[in-house]
Structures are given as structure tokens and as C-alpha cells.
Design a protein that fits this description.
The chain has about 260 residues and is an alpha/beta fold. It contains 8 helices and 11 strands. Helix 5 packs parallel to helix 7 (about 205-215).
């Protein structure tokens, strides 16, 4: 275990490197108390041999449900477990993971939620685009070849009619699935001095919105690729966004982003 003290833009965290660096790219998966969902996702990743093309790194926000037991993760092919020991939510977990990935020398990172909704078997498609020189690759369930399965109606309406149009306007390029955290970033993009993703202002969902638009604003290459996002047929929808407070926060972030409030 290596303990990292808090620094500007990076929370205090611990790194448990279960294996050595094996790939040019890593998959960052932010999680907190995802229980069986993250374990099933990792089993799918192993089944589709994802670990042969990218190192899988869990960015844990302080889970207490036993899902981050290291022997279990090692058997499932996880390369590294990062545990945030500081304040902040998803944005802080991603900043922790991005900083660590850049320090370890990866050429790019792919991010994906840890609730087993996304087609983790599509990781090689993101890597192909990174290898082709793209700096930002957004996964979209709405492109031809993608699949939106059991998407809640309110989520479908908000993405298609509010979130995607505002992000597209801000980015100056059309995107269709902008709440989707399944995406990839090149090292060149993340290290650009006009991007600066490692800042403490990115606490929750601000970083995802900001990185969705900054690449094209700077003339960097961006695209979407088809992916699958599958919600359960019944039961509680796996999400960390509350209906009223969470959606109000998302709209506030979109407006701030539109007017350049997160630009360095």
C-alpha cells in the first residue's frame, strides 16, 4: 500500500497495486458500495478478456459493503485499487484516478460506471479510437449499433431534450449521450494546460460535464461510438442522482459550464 497525501486538485488516497502496469491504457471505475453490481461487472470484464488490453483500476469512495476485498478483486483481474480518504464525490474519485494514471504513465484512460449497466466488452472500441488519435471519445447508446435498454422515461427525456443539447451547444459539436460516464480521454487532452482537470472545483458531476466540452472547444479530436446501457427491468434504478436535488445540481452545472465557469 502507498499512501498519498492531499495536494492541489488531488484528494488524499491510498493505492493498492495488485499487479504491475501491463497496458498503455487503464479503465477507471469510480465506485462506492456497489456490492454485487461491481463484482458482476468485473466478471463480465474478465469473461470478455478486457484485462488483456487495459489495466482495470477501481476508484473507491470509501465502500463499507465488503465489495472491495482485495483477494476477491485480484481473482477478478483488477490491477489496482485506489481508496479516497478525503472529501468529495465522483469528481474527487476521478481526479484521484486521473492523477494516479498519469503518474503511472498511461497514454489514456477509459472511464465507466461501476453499477454493471454498461457494455464493458466495448473497451477495445475506445482503445481503437485513442490509437487513431482521438482525444475524447464519448460512448452513446443512441448511435446506430448502440442500445438503450429499459431506460427510465424521465432519464430518456432529460438526456435527449436538455442535457445533450446544452452540452452540444457548449462543445460546438453534436453529442447524443452526454450523461453517460462511459468515455475515454487521451493523455494529451488531460495534460493540456488549457484543460487542467485536477482542480478542487470538480466535486461531483462537474468534471464529466467539463471534459465533455473542453476538447472540441480547443480544437482537439472528439467523437462518439455506440455502446449499450442496460437498466434493470424492475426494482430500484442503480444511480447516485436523486430526483430533485440531483437533477437541480446537474442543471446548475450545465449552465455554469455553458458560460465557461469551469475553464482555467
Amino acid at each position: 500500500m502507498i499512501a498519498y497525501e492531499r495536494r492541489d486538485g488531488v484528494p488524499r488516497f491510498e493505492a493498492y497495486e495488485l499487479d504491475v502496469k501491463k497496458s498503455r491504457y487503464c479503465v477507471l471505475i469510480p465506485v462506492i458500495n456497489e456490492g454485487e453490481r461491481i463484482l458482476q461487472e468485473l466478471k463480465r470484464a474478465r469473461h470478455y478478456n478486457v484485462m488483456s488490453c487495459a489495466d482495470v483500476v477501481l476508484c473507491d469512495g470509501g465502500s463499507t459493503d465488503g465489495s472491495m476485498e482485495q483477494k476477491k478483486l485480484l481473482k477478478l483481474g483488477v490491477n489496482t485499487l485506489l481508496i479516497k480518504r478525503d472529501e468529495g464525490r465522483q469528481g474527487a474519485q476521478l481526479r484521484m484516478g486521473i492523477w494516479w494514471a498519469l503518474q503511472r504513465g498511461y497514454d489514456g484512460v477509459i472511464t465507466i460506471d461501476g453499477n454493471n449497466k454498461d457494455s464493458i466488452e466495448d473497451i477495445p472500441r475506445f482503445i481503437e479510437k485513442l490509437d487513431d488519435g482521438y482525444d475524447f471519445i464519448q460512448g452513446s447508446r443512441f448511435l446506430k449499433g448502440g442500445h438503450a435498454i429499459n431506460t427510465p422515461l424521465i432519464r430518456l427525456i432529460s438526456v435527449r431534450l436538455i442535457h445533450a443539447p446544452l452540452i452540444s451547444l457548449t462543445a460546438r459539436q453534436r453529442f447524443t449521450d452526454t450523461t453517460n460516464a462511459y468515455r475515454a480521454y487521451s493523455r494529451r487532452y488531460l495534460e493540456n494546460p488549457e484543460v487542467c482537470p485536477l482542480r478542487d472545483i470538480f466535486i461531483s458531476y462537474e468534471l464529466l460535464a467539463y471534459l465533455s466540452v473542453r476538447a472540441t472547444q480547443l480544437g482537439m479530436k472528439a467523437c462518439e461510438i455506440p455502446v449499450t446501457r442496460r437498466y434493470p427491468k424492475e426494482g430500484k434504478t442503480p444511480t447516485k442522482i436523486s430526483f430533485f436535488k440531483g437533477n437541480y445540481e446537474l442543471v446548475k452545472i450545465l449552465v455554469t459550464n455553458l458560460f465557461g465557469g469551469y475553464n482555467p
